[in-house]
Design a protein that fits this description.
Residues 1-12, 986-1008 have a biased composition (Low complexity). Keywords: Disulfide bond, EGF-like domain, Membrane, Transmembrane, Transmembrane helix. InterPro entries: EGF (IPR000742). Residues 13-27, 972-985 have a biased composition (Polar residues). It is a single chain. The chain is an alpha+beta fold and 1339 residues long. Helix content is 17%, strand content 31%. A hairpin with an 8-residue loop joins strand 48 and strand 49 (889-897). It is extended. The chain starts with a strand and ends in a 15-residue tail after the last strand.
């Protein structure tokens, strides 16, 4: 339609003027105005207007003027066409556009629209970017922008479509997922939004206008000189079809998204979202007009905007066409809106039936109302008046779901009728909601009133729609759909007839226990209840009953007493027949069960099962946990009681065997086809042979498989629990330790954890016995615990009061516990700030304490840094770390007998002072550094502490360079006896050659001087007590360390082999657990913090040789954190020297424990998954690495600390050896044993042991504390494979347990009954061997 007003703007020096005016369009033709313009080179537009001016003060000034003409210069069309016939059109001739010339009037968008409206208002093609397809060639930059806009808009439509249209929706009544109903305000907003979307629809109208006008190639070529002539008509049709399609799809999405909205804001947002996508092309068209997309795009936009239809139809025609189109579109949308509203108000989008699963924790009655609920409409709704539906329980018709508008929530109540109820008088309610579909509330919180009337949140509720149809095969091909429910065929049951016939017989699982009542014994066997050929069903589950063989339950006069198992909606119930108080129960049981409701029926259950969560699971009560029921209360009504917290041991299983689906257990034979019962074997029992002889504390190799849970854990120390029937790891008598050599596990098995008190950091100091069955640990400051391991349990024997412990060590000898004996133990601790040790000697009678005084010259803050003890407890070694004011040294204590005949440890001035070494690069080993003091025959009082100047003569130490000055610090000698009289101070003389030798001469009255500044960082004593290893360093260079080994030859400690020099990872790394010797002292393990080394003593070469160090180190490097310095916190070595355990900081910034086993030629990891460690956590290994103890002082959140032990498969011997374990009980003073074996070539091997005293020292026979009556002894032997040709074992056992020999070759143990005379056990063919004959009983 032509416009009668226009606006133009221009700028002057005085301010901005905005002329506005209104004129009358004379409705002349375009040709007439073009001709007039050409004659006077201007366009005159009559208008009455006013001038509005803003003065500098911001005041608006208006001035009325007369009607005048606004002239716009034009250029004759002929002139333009002569210059460039393809670049200009007749319209452009009237309104020229030059790139370098500004026309403010024409550049004004408002003015251009005014002129265009005055001339005509109908475009030749739609003003959108998609018209670029017509106005220019395909290869033009403009069509690239067109392609970008097309891609963006189509992608946006696809994204929205995927979001709002669920193409997988199989709901034929609601394919677009419209909400079941909406509120009146939302419905009104939907209607208004749809009306508005029709009024602003432009794309469809413009496309239809252009289609109506038809294709005019001549006019298109005149208006758009750059358009390609080839395929112009096809592009014109494609352009219009695409615009029309996009408009229609936008209108469709608008309708769907508006109708999917459930609130007013959602309606508006959805409409705005689609409208934004629909106008993307218009937005880009506007950007092109403003010149933001380049000159080419701007030019095409101007051309499209100024290209008018030369032959428009009359105005009345256009108005009629537009009105008719809008009317048709409006009618269609309103019709679809009315259809959706009608379906919503009639409940077509709501489920006709819902399946509800109630939880019964808040109120026990709620669980009984689980089941089906059918819809019933209130009839109060209308088009603009929404109402919620109601759902009644199908089973009783006395419970329903409804909506309470006062609280704005769905409610549930029972005990109501269809016509009389108050929806706001509820027993359970949803959270506040306006949802019309109750199934959506299942994901929000529901509340219920408990029996006391208090509102409590419900932990669980499930509400979902359910229906079956004849087309949908929801009844599992085993039933028919009748009135929205499946009627199952005989032999099938369940909501969808998905379960085959239930098990005919149930029995209490003999592995678990039975149902124990206070006043009666409950049945252990149950059978399916049938009435004729029909199975009794309650709550869609079968009913089980006892004593049905001789009863016709439809005749009450013949009924006896019985127990019955039935479902109550949430739990299975076990009830006695006399617990049903309804008269109908005794009159007609079949009818009673058909109408049974667990809330409205009057009965009392004896036991209730755990809640059954999923209606698809637990079609029978097999495998459920059962609980006793609470006593009935008058306030709860006649229905079911609540489940009590007391768990019953009874668990039911189906005893109807089937070789495929329910086979007999433990190799039992199913008599399928006959009685369908099991014929049990292997000593098992029960209806399915389900009770095996496992979990009784005794390892049964037949059941030692994964399927039997490794004999219930009986075959592994870490999982075995002793019972009254057997003690873990013992023979039937309990006196022979048979061990756990049948334990089969690829991973370490954790035993029971020994835990400390909060903030105790237990696990920093502990010691493990060689057998792995005794442990001593510091549990808190001043508390020392002694524990014995029996199976997986650590049993506390003693908790001793002690000092603040610095170090701990322990020895127990080759003993194991039995029913009347506990292994003796010697526990030695050093105390902070004290120069004495405390030794605890613990036997069956308790623990005695012994104080071991250190040398008087020792300093309290240095003494006791490391401790070691021999296996037989007779040798104790203690180190003094050393400092700048005193060098490190080691003191030896040996066991003996005191004047009272008790055990005592004495210090006989047996002091080891290591020499100071330097590294000789030429000889490649460390040599002692000998100093020659430049003080010939000088003397000074030793009590005078202070510096003395001197020099170093380097003639005997050339690597030190020329003579050096030095200062010697002296310290006063502490007085042993206080006296007021002055005493003569001793003096010390220094000869030029004076220096401590490697075998120091010890005088009882003098303490030798240690090497200056030398430190002992760590120490280890071998189990034999005759080898000592030290890690030495200097105060000035802590990282440079020397490993020095001493051996005791009976009188003196001498160095063994050349010292080993190495470098620590850091000055702060030195730890007392960085070195360890094997039992015999022939293998040494030490760590530098980043590296681990294992060296063996080579007697022939008289030196220490590394054992495949590169292999072990490469394995460690794969595990440790490469970014962390000092990533190995602690190490340990098994007594035989073949297992290494490392506490490693891994890349995840945690500590893990890795163990490695030596297999004759290389090191191998023993576990795939490392166990957890702790910073500053020590380690310990038992014989053969069968037990690993890990200190965890810093793992627990409360810093209580703990010690965790793990069981590993024992590897005490190498592959060319056979392991033998000899276990027996002893008589004091007399028990001995010998074993002689011979190889085929006649080589003889001898082994022996006994008599057994602990601690073992000269004179122990007379010390009563070392006698251990009725003790169990374990001896581990590694016999060469070649020595198994024959052998004779002789032993003098006692009357308690006899003896047992166990071999690692897989054969059964050899058990010999108790004997009081020497017993000889011969194996192999020894006729050609010169073996010693059995000795007499004179021992």
């Amino acid at each position: 339609m032509a416009s009668s007003s226009f606006t133009t703007a221009f700028t002057t020096q005085e301010g901005e003027y905005q002329p506005t005016g209104t004129g009358t369009n004379p409705r002349r033709s375009l040709h007439r105005y073009q001709s007039a313009a050409l004659r006077r080179n201007t366009i005159r537009l009559p208008s009455r207007h006013s001038i509005t001016k803003l003065n500098p003060d911001g005041v608006v000034e208006e001035e009325e003027e007369e009607e005048e003409e606004v002239e716009a210069p034009v250029t004759p069309r002929e002139t333009i066409n002569e210059e460039n016939d393809r670049d200009w059109t007749p319209v452009q001739a009237n309104f020229p556009l030059e790139e370098d010339e500004a026309y403010p009037f024409l550049d004004s968008i408002t003015a251009m629209r005014a002129i265009k409206g005055y001339v005509h208002d109908e475009n030749l093609i739609p003003t959108t970017t998609y018209s670029f397809l017509v106005s220019t060639s395909l290869g033009n930059m403009t069509n690239i922008v067109n392609a970008l806009v097309l891609t963006l808009q189509v992608a946006s439509y696809i994204a929205v479509s995927v979001s709002v249209l669920d193409f997988r929706n199989d709901d034929e009544y609601n394919p677009f997922k419209f909400p079941p109903n909406v509120t009146s305000s939302v419905r009104a907003t939907q209607l208004l939004s749809l009306v508005y979307s029709i009024l602003v629809q432009e794309s469809i109208v413009n496309a239809l206008y252009t289609f109506r006008n038809g294709f005019d190639e001549e006019e298109l070529r005149r208006s758009f000189p750059e358009c390609a002539t080839h395929g112009l008509k096809a592009r014109w049709y494609i352009c219009l079809c695409f615009i029309l399609t996009m408009g229609c799809y936008a209108q469709f999405l608008t309708f769907v998204m508006i109708m999917q909205s459930e609130d007013v804001l959602g309606v508006l947002l959805n409409y705005a979202a689609v409208n934004f996508i629909a106008t993307i092309d218009d937005r880009f068209f506007y950007l092109g007009k403003r010149g933001w997309l380049g000159k080419q795009v701007e030019r095409n936009v101007r051309l499209i905007g100024l290209a008018d239809n030369p032959n428009p139809p009359p105005i009345w025609y256009r108005r009629l066409f537009h009105s008719l189109f809008m009317l048709v579109l409006f009618a269609g949308l309103i019709g679809m809106w009315g259809l959706v509203v009608s379906l919503q108000t009639t409940g077509a989008y709501l489920p006709n039936t819902i399946r509800v699963e109630f939880d019964d924790q808040v109120h026990p009655a709620l669980g009984t109302f689980s089941g089906y609920y059918d819809i019933q409409h209130s009839g109060e709704g209308g088009m603009f008046r929404s109402a919620h539906a109601m759902y009644y329980e199908r089973r009783s018709q006395q419970a329903l779901f409804s909506y309470c508008p006062q609280i704005g929530a769905w409610t549930f109540q029972w005990g109501v009728s269809v016509n009389e109820f108050d929806p706001c008088n509820w027993h359970a309610r949803s959270s506040a909601t306006i949802e019309f579909d109750i199934t959506t509330t299942a994901t929000s919180k529901w509340f219920a009133k408990n029996p006391g009337g208090r509102t409590v949140p419900m932990p669980f509720i499930d509400i979902h729609g359910w229906s079956c149809t004849e087309d949908e095969k929801l009844c599992g091909l085993h039933g028919t759909c009748e009135q929205g429910a499946c009627q199952c065929e005989e032999g099938f049951f369940g909501d969808e007839c998905e379960f085959p016939r239930p098990c005919n017989t149930l029995e209490v699982d003999g592995r678990m226990g039975d149902f124990r009542g206070i006043d009666r014994k409950w049945s252990e066997q149950f059978e399916l209840l049938r009435f004729g050929n029909e199975t009794a069903i309650v709550y869609d589950r079968p009913v089980y009953i006892t004593q049905t063989d001789s009863l016709r339950l439809s005749q009450p006069q013949q009924q006896g007493e019985f127990d019955m198992i039935f479902f109550t909606g949430r739990r299975w119930a076990l009830a006695f027949s006399r617990a049903f108080q309804d008269p109908e129960f005794a009159e007609d049981l079949e009818s009673y069960l058909a109408r049974f409701h667990a809330h409205f029926s009057n009965f009392k259950a004896g036991f209730l099962s755990e809640p059954v969560g999923d209606i698809k699971s637990n079609p029978s009560p097999e495998g459920l946990v059962w609980y006793s029921s609470e006593p009935s209360k008058p306030s709860t009504g006649p229905g079911i009681q609540a489940a009590a917290p007391q768990q019953s041991q009874g668990v039911l299983l189906c005893t109807e065997c089937n070789n495929n689906t329910n086979p007999c257990l433990y190799d039992g034979i199913c008599l399928e086809g006959h009685s369908n019962t099991c014929n049990c074997s292997q000593g098992s029992a029960g209806g399915l042979c389900e009770v095996p002889p496992i979990g009784n504390g005794r390892c049964d190799t037949f059941f030692n498989t994964v399927g039997f849970d490794r004999d219930g854990g009986d075959c592994c120390r870490g999982t075995c629990i002793s019972t009254a029937e057997a003690i873990c790891g013992r023979d039937p008598s309990g006196f022979l330790d048979t061990g756990f050599f049948n334990c089969q596990s690829d991973d370490p098995i954790p035993s029971e954890t020994v835990r400390g008190e909060p903030f105790a950091e237990a696990g920093r100091q502990f010691a493990l016995s060689g057998t792995g069955s005794v442990m001593a640990a510091v549990m808190n400051d001043g508390e020392l615990g002694l524990f014995d391991q029996v199976g997986a349990q650590w049993i506390q024997r003693e908790m001793l009061g002690t000092c603040l412990v610095t170090a701990i060590t322990m020895a127990t000898g080759p003993f194991s516990s039995n029913p009347i004996f506990q292994p003796p133990a010697v526990i030695v601790v050093s105390c902070k700030g004290i120069t004495s040790l405390r030794a605890y000697f613990c036997t069956d009678d308790g623990c005695s304490i012994h104080t071991l005084e250190g040398p008087p010259e020792a300093y309290s803050d240095l003494f006791g840094d490391s401790l070691g003890i021999s296996t037989n407890g007779d040798v104790i070694a203690v180190s003094s770390r050393g400092a700048p004011y005193q060098g490190g040294f080691v003191e030896i204590f040996r066991a003996g007998r005191d004047s009272r005949g008790s055990v005592a440890w004495e210090r006989n001035n047996e002091t080891i002072i290591p020499e100071k070494y330097r590294y000789d690069e030429e000889d490649n080993f460390a040599v002692p550094v000998v100093f020659t003091l430049g003080l010939s025959n000088a003397s000074f009082p030793m009590s005078a502490a202070g510096p003395i100047n001197g020099s170093i003569d380097s003639t005997q130490a050339p690597s030190l360079g020329p003579d050096k000055e030095f200062i010697l610090s002296t310290l006063p000698v502490p007085s042993t006896a206080p006296s007021s009289e002055p005493t003569e101070q001793p003096s010390a003389s220094f000869e030029p050659s004076a220096f401590p030798s490697s075998e120091p001469s010890i005088e009882p009255s003098a303490f030798p001087t240690a090497s200056p500044n030398q430190l002992i960082l760590a120490m280890s004593l071998s189990g034999s007590g005759d080898t000592l290893a030290l890690v030495l360093s200097d105060v000035s260079a802590l990282q440079i360390v020397t490993v020095l080994v001493y051996q005791f030859n009976g009188t003196d400690w001498t160095t063994r082999g050349h010292p080993i020099e190495d470098t620590l990872c850091s000055d702060n790394h030195p730890r007392t657990d960085m070195i360890e010797l094997s039992e015999d002292g022939s293998t040494l393990l030490y760590s530098t913090g980043d590296e681990v080394h294992v060296v063996d003593w080579n007697a022939e070469a008289d030196e220490w040789a590394r054992r495949e160090a590169d292999v072990l180190q490469s394995e460690v490097d794969l595990l440790r954190d490469p970014e962390r310095n000092c990533s190995i916190d602690s190490v340990t070595l098994s007594p035989e020297g073949n297992i290494v355990a490392l506490n490693i900081r891994v890349p995840s910034d945690e500590n893990n424990i890795a163990t490695f086993a030596w297999t004759n030629s290389t090191w191998e990891r023993r576990e795939e998954i490392m166990v957890r460690g702790s910073p500053e956590g020590p380690l310990a290994l038992s014989q053969g690495g069968s037990e690993l103890a890990v200190g965890l002082p810093l793992v627990a959140a409360d810093l209580s600390g703990s010690i965790q032990t793990y069981e590993y498969p024992p590897l005490p011997c190498q592959s060319d050896e056979i392991y033998f374990r000899l276990t027996f009980t002893i008589k004091p003073e007399v028990t001995r044993w010998t074993l002689e074996t011979a190889s085929p070539d006649g080589e003889i091997f001898n082994f022996g042991g006994g008599p057994y005293y602990f601690p073992n020292f000269p004179g122990a026979k007379e010390a009563s504390e070392t006698h251990h009556d009725k003790a169990t002894v374990i001896e581990d032997l590694c016999l060469p494979t070649v020595a198994l040709d024959c052998g004779i074992l002789m032993i003098y056992p006692t009357e308690f347990g006899g003896f047992s020999v166990i071999s690692s070759d897989g054969g059964p143990p050899i058990n010999v009954p108790p004997r009081d005379i020497p017993a000889a056990l011969t194996y192999g063919n020894c006729t050609n061997q010169s073996l010693v004959q059995p000795y007499s009983n004179d021992l």
